[in-house]
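Q: Given only this backbone (602 positions), what sequence would you predict?
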């Protein structure tokens, strides 16, 4: 292995020492410092095309874009192999997998020893957030995956500018390997990975080690690993919020603009909402971010948010010009697609992209596919990775170093019943309770069974880097010094209600702007609401249903409060919250009891 001298390109001594230690452990054949340039990206893509990792798409159909097919056993986040190795087990909490950090380090050093033989170690300096923002944090990923390098270039501000900026700042060390060393003369596989997998976070150390997977959030360590699991611990200690939230700007026909954030579990419509084309005339939605928000109250008491990412890593199946035209435009060029189908003319396709599929495809496993085939043409968690600047409705302030001011926070989940279309919290504490109460029917974004209901507080269940009870407490106390007049409004929405025959009750997509309009007008004090035991629901006189032709029966079901079902939900919440023991704030216990009391007396 060649000796690398880091002094020539960085004055950051901790970075120099860490790279030297990790290169000695992993034993790569060569080391490549990534500058983030277009020429570097193009070179790595060409090398991956030659190796079979990428397929170049038809440049007339999809300029400068590629298709990757992962190993069938490496297709999603692996929650059972994701660990929070805090010094104390209780600090990880019952919703995280915990291991003693010293024991885990011994295991990791075993699997990482020599893991990059025959490969290149890429040094990937990156910035989470606009480089000039005080809310930005820096990281360096060491990886032997050129796919991860190119994806990180899209998803973060990666390269020389980040490296220069972090000279005077701490950084989060992120070590990643696909875990497949190559012996001399051994032929590589198109998608190297290892059956033994570890995605490990050390919150006190602010470090990430990921082994064995080349896919998504397991390998793009700036995403869920840094931006949520490690950042949530940083935010707790430093007095801000790192959240699984989209950020959008909503402009009324009068030209008034407000910014909202929204937290939904994966595959519950965050990207669609963030890029929505409203059906209501004169209303406009612009995108700041579709997945992650870092938020902090400024010196005036205004909650401000930045999107720490620079790209979209969106779920492809179900995305279409009907459901999300702006996402389709965003990935029209300069994109990497993973586990979608390949058309005969060299473009991509996935379920839901068009009303009828093409007569022939090559599916995500590389096999011939025809309409009526038993298997899906695209994996249900197939993804597109595309630069945010390509989104036609990207907000003009999406990279504002100060962040955008947040007027309202929305929570939601995929529920076929019980939860109404829209509900407003009575106050901040009740809003935190609504966030803690998020439950959703599972999808393909994580490995495991789909369709079952699971609690997903704040849509952070797989992403909170410390004890969730302490996380609730952090939210409750984040407004301690903020006057009530400055508190953002908090809401809970549910686009996924179904009728008795399984039909959708709400049209969704662009018509979700009707809910956003009501929220906008509530923050102005111009829309009416009706108080119910679970919160304030829209007064129909203030909720715009024009042009929908929904029957009174359906409208009633959209806002119906089934007290017995809500009481059952509340009892279920009591059982769920009990796992946090004495780490559960008294305020959350009181909110459950008050909800039950309101339901019984109403």
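A: Predicted residues:
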């Amino acid at each position: 292995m060649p000796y690398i001298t880091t002094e020539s390109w960085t004055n950051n001594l901790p970075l120099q020492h860490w790279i030297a230690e990790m290169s000695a452990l992993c034993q790569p054949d060569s080391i490549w410092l990534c500058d983030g340039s277009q020429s570097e990206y193009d070179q790595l893509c060409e090398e991956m095309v030659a190796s079979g990792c990428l397929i170049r798409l038809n440049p007339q159909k999809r300029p400068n874009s590629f298709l990757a097919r992962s190993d069938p056993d490496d297709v999603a986040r692996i929650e059972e192999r994701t660990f929070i190795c805090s010094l104390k087990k209780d600090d990880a909490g019952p919703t995280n997998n915990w291991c003693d950090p010293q024991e885990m380090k011994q295991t990791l050093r075993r699997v990482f020893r020599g893991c990059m033989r025959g490969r290149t170690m890429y040094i990937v300096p990156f910035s989470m957030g606009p480089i000039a923002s005080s809310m930005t944090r820096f990281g360096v990923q060491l990886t032997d995956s050129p796919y991860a390098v190119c994806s990180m270039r899209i998803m973060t501000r990666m390269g020389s500018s980040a490296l220069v900026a972090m000279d005077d700042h701490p950084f989060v060390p992120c070590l990643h390997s696909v875990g497949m060393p190559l012996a001399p003369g051994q032929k590589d596989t198109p998608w190297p990975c290892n059956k033994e997998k570890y995605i490990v976070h050390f919150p006190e150390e602010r470090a990430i080690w990921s082994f064995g997977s080349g896919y998504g959030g397991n390998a793009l360590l700036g995403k869920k690993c840094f931006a949520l699991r490690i950042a949530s611990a940083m935010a707790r200690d430093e007095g801000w919020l790192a959240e699984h939230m989209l950020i959008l700007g909503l402009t009324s026909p009068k030209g008034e603009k407000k910014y909202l954030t929204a937290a939904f579990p994966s595959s519950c419509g965050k990207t669609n909402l963030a890029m929505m084309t409203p059906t209501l005339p004169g209303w406009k939605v612009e995108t700041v971010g579709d997945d992650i928000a870092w938020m902090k109250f400024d010196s005036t008491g205004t909650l401000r948010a930045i999107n720490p990412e620079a790209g979209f890593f969106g779920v492809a199946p179900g995305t279409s010009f009907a459901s999300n035209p702006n996402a389709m435009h965003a990935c029209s060029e300069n994109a990497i697609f993973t586990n979608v189908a390949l058309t005969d003319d060299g473009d991509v396709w996935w379920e839901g992209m068009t009303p009828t599929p093409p007569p022939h495809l090559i599916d995500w496993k590389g096999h011939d596919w025809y309409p009526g085939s038993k298997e899906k043409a695209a994996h249900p968690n197939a993804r597109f990775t595309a630069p945010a600047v390509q989104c036609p409705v990207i907000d003009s302030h999406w990279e504002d170093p100060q962040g955008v001011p947040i007027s309202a926070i929305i929570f939601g989940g995929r529920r076929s019943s019980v939860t109404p279309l829209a509900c407003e919290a009575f106050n901040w504490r009740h809003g935190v309770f609504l966030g803690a109460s998020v439950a959703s029917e599972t999808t393909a974004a994580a490995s495991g069974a789909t369709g079952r209901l699971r609690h997903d507080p704040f849509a952070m269940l797989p992403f909170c880097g410390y004890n969730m009870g302490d996380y609730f407490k952090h939210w409750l106390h984040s407004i301690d010094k903020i006057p009530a007049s400055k508190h953002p409004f908090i809401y809970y929405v549910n686009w996924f209600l179904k009728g008795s025959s399984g039909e959708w009750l709400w049209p969704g997509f662009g018509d979700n702007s009707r809910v956003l309009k009501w929220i906008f007008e509530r923050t102005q004090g111009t829309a009416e609401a009706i108080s119910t035991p679970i919160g304030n629901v829209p007064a129909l006189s203030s909720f715009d249903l024009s042009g929908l032709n929904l029957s009174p029966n359906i409208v009633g079901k959209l806002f119906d409060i089934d007290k017995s079902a809500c009481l059952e939900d509340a009892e279920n919440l009591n059982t769920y919250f009990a796992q946090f023991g004495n780490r559960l704030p008294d305020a959350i216990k009181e909110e459950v009891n008050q909800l039950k009391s309101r339901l019984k007396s109403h």
